[in-house]
């Protein structure tokens, strides 16, 4: 018996171009910044105001590393098994030469915290209480500075010793440590029943605020700094890996080469301290707005409510995060849906912000997510959008090996390859072999994204248009300086944004720039 063969279309998308200074373009952020400088960058050299919080050793490491950042850092010579020409690597020419900004390592606002205090706090029996105590050691120094000192800070850098990374994450086990009693029982993970609180008048209910948060140092810092300034968390071993050696005399951590570390941190530093991103997408259709929807369960919520948020990204590449209403949005194990009122309010807020920037509503509004849309939710989105705005719902999901595409040669499928199943569904390889770099950076045969056009208010866009947009959105991760990401920015940071929004200190306030969350 013969079965009919499916006629599948294999397509390819050229690498999106990026805009830099002097109306110049490049496919690679490093090439564009090195040759032309950031798009819409400062006309003259600007000094950024940096605040650093860390132990004396941590602040010393940051200052030493900063001097290298200012003078330039070359790529180390290739190893015995590496290619001679490693096109994915590039020398870092220096912060001033590359980005047009600078700072004086000796004139930083350096706020010192004591290592012994951090070490003691990490040993508190209750994990929630321990992480909260460590985070407060850092954030209270910032609060004290803001109360007592004049002058503003563009970005706060938190330099942390290895014990913070090892002991202050949700998966930390703290095996072998001698723990000390705190103010809450060791195994407590949620607030105590109200009846217990009234049994003991000495009990301070504010102590249990720690259970409204996930025990994660990074999330604590980001949530607290949302109302203050952008922040960056750096491990001491990232800045000076040779200071942390094992018994054989080798660095305990395997890190990226120093030039790549400099590219990534400098890109984030520029993005978080300037009005415009370091590059933007070329040839973007006018009047297009992209939204990434994210849902996150609220910790310690007795009604199992969920936080919903939207990340809006524009043609310029920058983004804004909007908090939606908390509510019973989880309808099944993997499905989340807003009711009509919440959907209207959230999308209405996004469109209002877009109108404030462009004086008119968007022509097209693409909602990217990993869940579907039910009828009530979708109708509310369409009603919230002006008559002339086409709202399009697109589901983007990573795959785990259910589809593979192979090509002849030494390298896997080329990045930008698409397998179109029909008018609504396609596989898109956003990771793969890059001819310009002559390499594929990945451990195994790349997996594609599964892209589905779910719904459209007006005319459904062509699948090729949707896939080209997604390719472009893989190029605007300003938290690093990579050639591309494997996920579009609308999906790439969804979990990170949600993790911060559900923290206790982040539950109030209006829209915030995306740079505060990464």
Topology:
Layout: E1 9-12, E2 18-19, E3 25-26, H1 29-35, E4 46-47, E5 50-54, H2 56-71, H3 95-99, E6 101-102, E7 109-112, H4 115-121, H5 127-148, E8 155-160, H6 162-167, H7 194-197, H8 217-225, E9 231-235, H9 236-239, H10 258-273, E10 280-281, E11 288-297, E12 306-313, E13 319-323, H11 340-358, E14 364-369, H12 375-384, E15 390-398, E16 417-420, E17 425-428, E18 449-456, H13 463-473, H14 489-492, H15 494-501, E19 512-513
Parallel strand pairs: 4-6, 5-7, 5-8, 8-9, 11-14, 14-15
Antiparallel strand pairs: 1-16, 2-3, 2-10, 11-12, 12-13, 13-19, 15-18, 16-17, 17-18
Protein name: Piwi domain-containing protein
GO molecular function, one term: nucleic acid binding
Organism: Flavimaricola marinus
Give a structural overview:
- Strand 16 and strand 17 form a beta hairpin.
- The protein has helices at 29-35, 56-71, 95-99, 115-121, 127-148, 162-167, 194-197, 217-225, 236-239, 258-273, 340-358, 375-384, 463-473, 489-492, 494-501, and strands at residues 9-12, 18-19, 25-26, 46-47, 50-54, 101-102, 109-112, 155-160, 231-235, 280-281, 288-297, 306-313, 319-323, 364-369, 390-398, 417-420, 425-428, 449-456, 512-513.
- It is of the alpha/beta class and 518 residues long.
- The chain starts with 8 loop residues before the first strand and ends in a 5-residue tail after the last strand.
- It folds into two domains: 47-76 and 91-182 and 215-273, Rossmann fold, CATH 3.40.50; 281-397 and 451-516, Ribonuclease H-like superfamily/Ribonuclease H (Nucleotidyltransferase, domain 5), CATH 3.30.420.
- The strands form four sheets. The chain has a ten-stranded mixed sheet with strand order 1-16-17-18-15-14-11-12-13-19, sandwiched between helices. Strands 7-5-8-9 form a four-stranded parallel sheet, sandwiched between helices.
- It is globular and about 70 Å long.
- This is Piwi domain-containing protein.
- InterPro entries: RNaseH-like_sf (IPR012337), RNaseH_sf (IPR036397).
- GO terms for molecular function: nucleic acid binding.
């Amino acid at each position: 018996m013969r079965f009919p063969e499916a006629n599948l279309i294999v397509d390819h998308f050229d690498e999106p171009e990026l805009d830099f200074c002097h109306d110049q373009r490049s496919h690679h952020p490093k090439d564009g910044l090195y040759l032309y400088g950031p798009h819409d960058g400062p006309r003259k050299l600007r000094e950024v105001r940096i605040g650093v919080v860390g132990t004396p050793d941590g602040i010393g490491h940051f200052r030493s590393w900063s001097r290298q950042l200012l003078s330039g850092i070359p790529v180390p010579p290739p190893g015995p098994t590496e290619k001679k020409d490693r096109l994915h690597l590039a020398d870092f020419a220096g912060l001033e030469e590359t980005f047009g900004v600078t700072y004086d390592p000796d004139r930083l606002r350096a706020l010192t915290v004591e290592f012994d205090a951090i070490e003691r706090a990490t040993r508190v029996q209750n994990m929630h209480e321990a992480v909260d105590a460590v985070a407060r050691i850092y954030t209270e120094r910032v609060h004290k500075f803001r109360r007592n000192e004049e002058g503003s800070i563009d970005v706060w850098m938190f330099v942390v010793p290895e014990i913070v990374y090892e002991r202050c994450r949700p998966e930390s086990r703290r095996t072998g440590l001698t723990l000390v009693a705190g103010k809450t029982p060791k195994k407590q993970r949620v607030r105590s029943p109200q009846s217990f609180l009234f049994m003991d008048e000495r009990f301070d209910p504010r102590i249990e605020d720690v259970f409204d948060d996930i025990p994660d140092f990074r999330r604590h810092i980001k949530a607290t700094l949302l109302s203050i300034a952008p922040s960056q968390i750096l491990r001491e071993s990232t800045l000076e890996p040779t200071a942390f050696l094992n018994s054989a005399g080798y660095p305990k951590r395997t890190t990226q080469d120093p030039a790549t570390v400099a590219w990534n941190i400098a890109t984030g530093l520029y993005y978080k301290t300037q009005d415009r991103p370091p590059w933007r997408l070329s040839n973007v259709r006018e009047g297009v707005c992209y939204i990434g929807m994210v849902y996150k369960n609220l910790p310690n919520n007795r009604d199992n409510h969920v936080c919903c948020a939207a990340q809006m990204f524009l043609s310029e590449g920058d983004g804004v995060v909007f908090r939606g209403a908390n509510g019973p949005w989880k309808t099944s194990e993997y499905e989340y849906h807003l009711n009509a009122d919440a959907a209207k309010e959230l999308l209405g807020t996004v469109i209002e912000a877009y109108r404030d920037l462009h004086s008119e509503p968007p022509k097209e509004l693409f909602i990217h997510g990993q869940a579907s849309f039910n009828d009530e939710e979708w109708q509310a989105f369409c009603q919230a959008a002006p008559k002339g705005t086409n709202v399009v719902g697109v589901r983007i999901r990573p795959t785990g090996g259910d589809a593979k595409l192979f090509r002849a040669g030494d390298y896997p499928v080329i990045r930008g390859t698409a397998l179109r199943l029909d008018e609504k569904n396609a596989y898109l390889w956003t990771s793969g072999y890059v001819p310009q770099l002559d390499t594929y950076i990945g451990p195994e045969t790349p997996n594609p994204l599964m892209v589905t056009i779910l719904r459209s208010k007006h005319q459904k866009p062509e699948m090729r248009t949707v896939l080209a947009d997604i390719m472009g959105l893989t190029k605007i991760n300003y938290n690093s300086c990579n050639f591309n990401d494997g996920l579009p920015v609308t999906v790439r940071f969804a979990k990170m944004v949600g993790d911060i929004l559900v923290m206790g200190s982040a539950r109030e306030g209006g829209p915030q720039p995306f740079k505060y969350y990464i």
